Amino acid sequence: MPRRYDAHKKAAAERQRRLSTAGRDIGPLPPIRDPERRAEGSRDLAFFGREYFPDICCLPPGPCHYQACRRLAGAATNGGLFAFAMPRGFGKTTWSWLTAVWALLRGLRPFVALIGADEPAAVQLLDSIKMAFAHNDRLLDDYPEVCYPIRRLDGISQRARGQLYRGEPTALIWTGHKITLPTIAGSRASGATVRTAGLTGQIRGMAHTTADGRTIRPSFVILDDPQTDESARSPAQTQARHEIIQGAVLALGGPGTSIAAAMPCTVIKPDDLASRYLDRRAMPEWHGQRTPAVISWPTNDNLWGEYSRLRTEDLAAGGDGASADAYYLTHREEMDAGAEVSWEHYRQGCHSAIQLHWNLRLRNPAAHAAEYQNAPIDSTDGAEAITAKAILERPAGAYERGALPTLRQTLARLTASIDVHDNLLYWHVLASSTDLTAGLVDWGAWPDQKREYWTLDDATRTLKRKYPGRGKDGAIVAGLTDLLNSLLARTWELDGSQHRVDLCLVDLGYKPDEVELAIAQCNAPAAVIGSKGLPVKATNKPLSEYTKHPGDRVGHYWRSAKPPKRSRRQIQFDANAWKSIVARALTTAPGDPGALHLPTGNLRLLADHYAAEYPLRVTARGRTLDEWQLRPGRDNHFWDALVLCFVAAGVKGARPAALASGKKPSRKKRKVHYL
Length: 675
Fold this sequence. Notes:
By secondary structure, the chain is α/β, with parallel strands linked by helices. Helix content is 37%, strand content 18%. Strand 3 and strand 4 (168-169) form a beta hairpin.
């Protein structure tokens, strides 16, 4: 009896296994319905999008789409990098994930990584791809080897684990962060994988083990809008994301393997992450394509001015702009003259694309510039502001960091400066001639951070760590003393002559007592003076009108004075005036009088600091001047150090080129702001 029962149990288990296997086996695949359409779609990405996704690609593509498709297809097929920005609504993200689908189906890229500004953004991209494979009937018709096993899941992802095809596991994976397409013999997409990650999340080591035991790594990356509004406003965050892309992302393919990548992006701020990758001069390997909605605006200002008046008045009265529409239709030929748009079919209910974009610009010029022209307006640029991009594009001097430059006139002096903070001391050394033509010699932080880019907040080698056992103030004094001794002991050689620092200014604004103590105990106190920048505004009394006491010296926007309750004399200077002088030096062409020369090498950190402030022209009490403002969230400490070096040169007798030659300095025309 027990033997018969055991046999019965075994037979029942075998029947159940066969039934389970039969239930999990998806059976034969449907035939390909339209081989010609499939073949044409494989050859042409733009055709693939229009034919297989007509609900998404519902408007005829414009020239910008065909150009982007050629680049995207080229990257997916042959490798390479491509960054492109398109106006809102033009479908840059859509065409990117369509490229991923196209590359997977063709077997061009067995592992695609989707990387967003954060993880949820990348998951949204994967959701679009999953919807295409699971619910697109046209893809099911022509790519049954991929879509039919997915369709048989009936939306229940747990079924993927046990799914079989002809008795063999399909190894299908269908989760929120990763999909692996069915393993089907003869399928070009067999076992192809897609994974998601946030740019600042876990990227390194991304790999997948295939059904046959091979380990594969990403060969195609889609970096979808890899910055956020917050990161775009922060040079430090922008630099961090840039380094992640250039390092971890482009190394995802593994040692010795180049990776293909596409970056659909949006320009949020000038010189943000997107701007870097779209700049063909700065990063030519990314083949940046920046598409504005309007290539050229209409030339008939009078007719468009009347149109704007009619539309504004109609909307203000509660209308819908019908009178302006009628006016446009009546004068359309004349009003369209000179206009050129990137995509004529994108009209959003207007009679033409140019009418749409005129309306959008009329409603909000800044939003249209950013969202549709990919040329955001920097709201801080009320006057002539310095940009990091302009600094980085400035021709480098014919000398390396740490060497002395050859200036127009004989080198007159070396000056140094130190900007004081709790954790770090920022320093500069500057060479200059009598007309304030100058060259940056060297710079750094104390303690040295041992890396090319950092912020004050993320500094790891701090004064407190370098000088353990001391309090905050004691560490500042020790650091200042050591840094002063180091700078004043150094020598630089030019044309056989040895040069030392003639004067070092140290900022007194934060810790005056500690600064004066460090100056007193350094090895050469006579070569060091404390300094304080005064925020002289248009509403304030000019520095030249300050009361002059016995022993005071007065120079060009600076004075030497001994304030009450202070033990040493200090240099007081008009911070706004000297920042304008230094800004002019940074925008004067190298070789011209008064220009600031920069050495060769990586200047990104300096450029971000130098561009951290902007001038606002103010008129008050009969005076007009530039008042410098700090951009939110920026580090400006090397900018402060550079300004101090120029002030020190002024104290040693240098004057701006126009004054040194006896000419009155000219001012460039700038926007006027009334407060």
